[in-house]
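Q: Hi! First time doing this. I have a protein sequence and I read that you can turn it into a structure. Is that right? Here it is:
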Amino acid sequence: MAEGPIITEEMRKNIGVESEPITYEVEKGAINKLAEAIGDPNPLWRDEEYAKKGPYGGIVASPTFVISLRHDPFMEKVKQMASFKRIMNGGNDVEYFQPIRPGDIISVTGKIADIRERETKTGKMAFLTLELTYRNHKGDVAAKIKNVIIGFA
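A: Yes, that's right. Below is the predicted 3D structure, encoded as structure tokens:
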């Protein structure tokens, strides 16, 4: 079993610290390509005429679209702070607040929301709760993703 904590002091100091934003311009073609890629036939993401008559007055991105708006520099920083031998995804929780539309400018920020450590029969485990926030160009929060990463010593 590993000696000492597997959660570093640097990780603890970064709890709640929001990263610099990464910005994306949402294109109608990207919305359509994602819908095609995942086999989602919903006309709200693809058919302009249908979507105009729908609840949003035009094409919007599918709820899964936010997953394509990554924040690689934030994730790389978390990876560098953590000295885990193995990691696995402990789950994702996505909240939606505003539809994402073609032409929106979406800024993505990340932060470590929580860290816990647990001793198990096989060694130490850390649970990192990461939070990504997606804001549109009006400053409205469009979505939030909480992702739990499980790290093993």
